[in-house]
Amino acid sequence: MLLDSNIVIYAAEPNYEHVRRFIAHKKPVVSVINKVEVLGYYKLTPENQQKLEKLFQILPILSVSNAIIEQAISLRQQRKMSLGDALIAATALIHNLKLATANVKDFDWIEKLEVVNPVEK
Hints:
- The chain has a single domain (2-116), classed as Rossmann fold (3-Layer(aba) Sandwich).
- 50% of the residues lie in helices and 8% in strands.
- It is built from six helices and five strands.
- The chain has helices spanning 5-11, 17-24, 32-39, 46-58, 66-78, 83-94, and strands at 2-3, 30-31, 61-62, 99-100, 115-116.
- The strands form two sheets. It has a three-stranded parallel beta sheet with strand order 1-4-5. A two-stranded parallel ribbon has the order 2-3.
């Protein structure tokens, strides 16, 4: 299961134990795009940065390939979406992974992409 950046952030928060339990049973992976989005946030506190860096050390990180780039281009040609979302969705599609995100509506239009929201209880 590919984690969207918001799920990585929720997993580091103390009030989201149910998200951590969900992730623990799913063999989670992240994209290098998640790492840039999460650790590159300009308001990130040093404490949260440390927690999130530890999380990225544990999780397998998928690189962006030419196939992912081509899929992201195709998605952006179909509908307006951010570059980050297009690359995350393309990564899930190319690797045949479900996408865990709190922003289901950003991805639910994409055929062949299974989207789940582990934040909802």
